Amino acid sequence: MAKEHGMTAIGLTDHGAMYGAIDFIPPAKRTTSNPSSAVRYMSPTAPISKEPHVDNKRYHLTLLAKDNIGYQNLIKITTAAHIEGYYYKPRVDKDLLRAHSEA
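Above: the chain sequence. Below: its structure as tokens.
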């Protein structure tokens, strides 16, 4: 359908993970030039903090990769969010985003 409508990019935004990318990216590459993926929970504190109720005001942040380097960075961010930042939800902060950004 994306190809029919002349779309040059398409994205998938999994919630807190990238599980859908495995099935999404191969067919998306055949029809568009820039498939991308990811949604994260932003934490107001360092993600390694495990203080109860500290993240009651967390919010969502959608991250999209514009190229393979960006996709590799999304993988690193997602892994860190689940291993280092997980406390009820996989969390990231601005420092983690800066560390894995090519901007």
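Helices lie at 21-31, 68-83, 94-99.
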